[in-house]
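WARN retry 2 of 3 for item q-0093 after timeout on previous attempt; input resubmitted unchanged.
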Amino acid sequence: MKQQTQQEKLKSIGISMLALGFFPLVWFLSQAILFRELTEIISRNLLVVVALIVGSSFVFLLFYGMDKIIQLSPIDNRESLEARMFAGPSLFMISLFLFYPAIRTLYISFKDRYSNDFIGFENYKWAFSDPEMLVTIRNQIIWLIFVVFFVLVIGLVVAWLSDRLNKGEAFFKSIVFMPMAISAVGASAIFKFIYEYRPPPLTQIGIINGIRVSVDRGQALPGVEPGEKCMNNRVINGELKDFKNEDCLNPIGWLQQRDLTNLPFTENLNPEGFLSGILLNLPINTMLLMVIMIWMFTGFAAVVFSAGIKAIPAEIMEAGQIDGASELRVFRSIVIPYIKSTIIVVGTYMVVTVLKAFDIIYVSTRGDLETNLLAVKMLDEFSKYRNFGRSATVAVLIFVCVLPIIVGTAIRERENTQS
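OK item q-0093 returned
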């Protein structure tokens, strides 16, 4: 009896390896070889159609073949094998397209420009010593701090205020959430027009500079109303009204400003002072680009926080109001502790989003003028400078930054499941 049980176990293991290992491997290799040959024979557009038809047929054959092999196993083991049958291909594809590239990227980060020879930690030394790379890391840290902070704070305030509305709450939330429906490329294009700068005497098409050059310094000429002498190249009664007058404000290249030293309101600041020195060295163009992401994701945070606030039992809120707590005290002592888990989830999502931020920088400045981020730097090293080792190094740095977030999220979910 014991020998028979041992034989059944060996048979089950053999069928399991055959159904979940050997057969999917043959399936994958045959499909890879087939499509490699097809790429040399037919056009790309036709290949897409063939892939949809043949690919779906191959998936059917994969599960059909595994199921037929599993039917040969003992009845007691079929249920567990069938569960593995559905989970196995997914784990295989995740390993193939996620884990393997990650390991391969780590491997390449220790190699030279064209991934030929090992150079040890030279790429990592470059990452923490190259001036351009240090500026990129500085920008990434600034984005992580300020974007996440302002999205959470503004989202909480908007969610709390919108829930206090008696009418129009849905309309207000839809307006606030609308930027989330715009792609990062579209949002960047919108703000590019807002920040647009043209050298004088060209007409300013950017909203900020258009308003700026239409305002004088308050030193109106005799008989002229303030604001009438400064205009953005308008023709009135056949006369061109421009902003050449010395009393008119000049346009500013907002995205071209690496710091605040060229802005008029900093003329009287002492560059040697501690606070004024920090203010003067603020990367204004980087901060203006952060506004784009804050504008995009504040609505998302507000809607999620609003759902969390609505889940707070009304009795708790009423008890706080009966005790004489002000709105601010209720918000600080009841609302925030109750939706703490929601805040952590939104904060985690924003951290990951900031770490992979690419579109905004690429569309707005291409990473020039000291506005680069790690995701754009990774692409630059790969495609612009053709340095695969450094590109892989930057990718590893991004992964190292994301890893604590992933681990923390997994631990928190496990604790929530156990509780």
